[in-house]
Design goal:
49% of the residues lie in helices and 10% in strands. Helix 1 links the parallel strand 1 and strand 2. The protein is α/β, with parallel strands linked by helices. The chain is built from 8 helices and 7 strands, in the order βαββαααββαβαααβ. The chain has 2 domains: 161 residues, Ribosomal protein L13 (Ribosomal Protein L13p, Chain: A, Alpha-Beta Complex), CATH 3.90.1180.10; 50 residues, no CATH class.
Length: 230
């Protein structure tokens, strides 16, 4: 466990869809400095407050900031949404120190949801969600659309791949629901059989079932944090 954050030492996969860029970056920066490893997916769906035209004008002003004698020395203007998020988080971390450099090494960001993260549990951050932080009716734009306007050429490809992934995910989920239903039926039959044999503890549970319930409660208590599961 990471001290003070309530998060586990394993990799946390964050679904960045409709999260506010600055709020998401600030929370992730703190968790990275605390030692948490984070993978951010669907960076092209990150939201920015303000309309697309306004954000595009701001980014074009940023593109004009460069070194006169040798522009390749910096500043580097990233176009991909994942790199824009990475640069935003870098600005909130003392990245020139060993501690900050190690924190940035714990961060991975992707457009879409590549393998193997499409099979892993994804989380959201309530304190950064657009629906909870932005006023209803307020203008906003998506980072992927902005990036495509300023030089990122893979917006359509990522969109197409995401559609294919969602189709596969839907098929997988339907099979999963069927398996869960069959498992419930099997568990009910097993409970009836065990009840007829009298194999119950003082709590009315089978010994193995009681141990499983206790482990589930312990896991829930450990997972109470700033993250919500999708």
């Amino acid at each position: 466990m990471v001290s003070g954050s309530g998060l586990c030492a394993k990799v946390v996969v964050v679904d960045a869809r409709h999260h506010m860029l600055g709020r998401l970056a600030s929370i992730l920066a703190k968790e990275l400095l605390n030692g948490q490893r984070v993978v951010v997916v669907r960076c092209e769906e990150i939201a920015l407050s303000g309309g697309l035209v306004r954000q595009k004008m701001k980014y074009l002003r940023f593109l004009r900031k460069r070194m006169n004698t040798k522009p390749s020395k910096g500043p580097i203007h990233f176009r991909a949404p994942s790199r824009i998020l990475w640069r935003t988080i870098r600005g909130m971390i003392p990245h020139k120190t060993k501690r900050g450099a190690a924190a940035l090494e714990r961060l991975k960001a992707f457009e879409g949801i590549p393998q193997p993260y499409d099979k892993m549990k994804r989380m959201v951050i309530p304190d950064a969600l657009k629906v909870l932080r932005l006023q209803p009716g307020h203008k906003f734009c998506l980072l992927g659309r902005l990036s495509s306007e300023v030089g990122w050429h893979h917006y359509d490809i990522v969109k197409e791949l995401e559609e294919k992934r969602k189709v596969k995910s839907k098929v997988f989920y339907e099979k999963k629901k069927q398996l869960i239903a069959l498992r419930k039926v099997a568990a009910k039959k097993a409970d009836e059989q065990l009840a007829s044999e009298g194999m119950r503890t003082k709590w009315g549970l089978h010994p193995h079932e009681e141990r499983g319930q206790r482990l589930v409660c312990e896991c829930i208590l450990k997972r109470l944090s700033i993250f919500w599961y999708r």
